Amino acid sequence: MRKLAFFIPFALFIGLSVFLFSGLFSNPMERESSVMNQPLPAFALPDLQQPEKIWTPDSVKGKPFLLNVWGTWCVTCNAELAYLTELREQGVMIVGLYYQQPADAAFGEVFNLSALQQEVALKLEQQGNPYQWNILDKDRTLIFDLGVTGAPETFLIDAQGIIRQHHIGDINPQVWQQKLAAAYQSLQE
Amino acid sequence: MKYFFFSLLLLAGTAQATQALIEFQSPEQQALFKELTHELRCPKCQNQNIADSHAVVAVDMRNKTLELVQQGQTKEQVLDYMKSRYGDFVHYQPPLNKFTFILWLLPALMVLGLILLLVVRRKAESKRVDTDPVDTAQVHAEPHLEQQLDQLIEQYRRKS
Fold first, then answer.
1. Which pLDDT belongs to residue B17?
2. Is residue A138 within 8 angstroms of chain B, CB to CB?
C-alpha cells in the first residue's frame, strides 16, 4: 500500500510527460473535415478566364479530379504550382477554385475582373499551369460551404462528385505519396 | 508639444468613426449576434473567436452569422449551419460525445479519487492509533523520558 502510494505521483508524472511530449509533434491544423464523403455542395460559379461559362456540380463531375483552392496572393499556393504542374503532366486532373480576397473598400479597392485574369494568366505562365480550368469564387460562397479555412486546400472528388479527401496545406511529393496518390489511383478503377 | 499630441488623438477619433455600423431590427437580434460571434471560433487562427479575428474566413463567418441572425434564425440553427461546414471545432462549447466524454469524466473521477484517498488515509490513521499501544505505553511507563524531551525542547528554544 505504501509503495503504491509512492508510485502514484511518479506514474502520474510519467503519464503527463508522455501526453505533453506527444503534443509537441501533433499538428493543431489537422482536424476531421465535415465535408468528407459528402457530395459537392450546390454552386453556380463562373469560369475565371471565360466568365460567360458557368460551372455547376453536374458540369464539373465525370472524372476523379483534384479541386485546388488557391490565389495569386497566397505564397504557399505559388510554391506548390510547380509540383501540381508535374502531377498534371502525369495525367492527374486538377481544377482550380480561385480564392478571391475581399476588396477593402476603406483602401479604395474595387474588384477588377480583367486585371485579375491578367494576373492569373501571368502567374501560371511563369510558375506552370496545373489547371484544366479555374472557377472564380468571388464571394467565397463555395469556399465557405466546403469548410475551407484558408489557401491552399485541396479536395479529391470522385467521378460521382463525392468529396473523398480534404487536405489543408500545400501538396508536395511527400503529401501526395502518403495521403492522396493511393486514394486517387483507387478512384481511377 | 503636449497639446499637439492630444490634438493627434482627436484626429484618431474621427478616423474611427468612419467604420460601418450594423443596424439590427431588435435588441434581441443584436444580443444574439454578439453572443454568437463570441462563441464561434475562427477555424484559421488557433485561439480567437470570430468577433476578435481579422482572418478572411472569420470575416466571412461574421457576415454569414449576421445574415442568418437578421433572417430570424435561432442560435441553434446558426450553430448547426457553421458546424456542418467547419465541424464541432468552431464552437467553443464542445458537445458531449465519445471523443469528448473524458473532458467531463476526468474532473469527476479526480474528485472521487481524492475523496477515496482521504477516506483510506483516515482509516489507516485511526487504525494506527488503536493498534499501536507500544508508543503510548512506553511514555506512560517512563515519565522521565518525557521530562527529558521537555528539557531538550526548552534548550533549543532558548538557543534560537
1. 47
2. no
A93 touching chain B per CB within 8 A: no
Rounded to an integer, what distance in angstroms lies between the CA atom of residue A131 and that of residue A85?
8
* Closest-CA distance of chain B to residue A5, Å: 10
In the CATH hierarchy, which top-level class contains the domain A34-188?
Answer: alpha beta
Of B56, B59, B85, the CB nearest to A147: B85
Give the DSSP letter string of A27-81: -TT----TTTTPBPPP--EEBSS-TTSEE-HHHH-SS-EEEEEE-TT-HHHHHHH
Host H or E run for residue B125? helix B101-131
The model carries a pTM of 0.75
Report d(CA B86, CA B19) in Å as an integer. Answer: 29
What ipTM does this complex have? 0.83
Q: How confident is the model at residue A104 (pLDDT cuts 50, 70, 90)?
A: confident
Q: Are A168 and A146 in contact (CB under 8 A)?
A: no
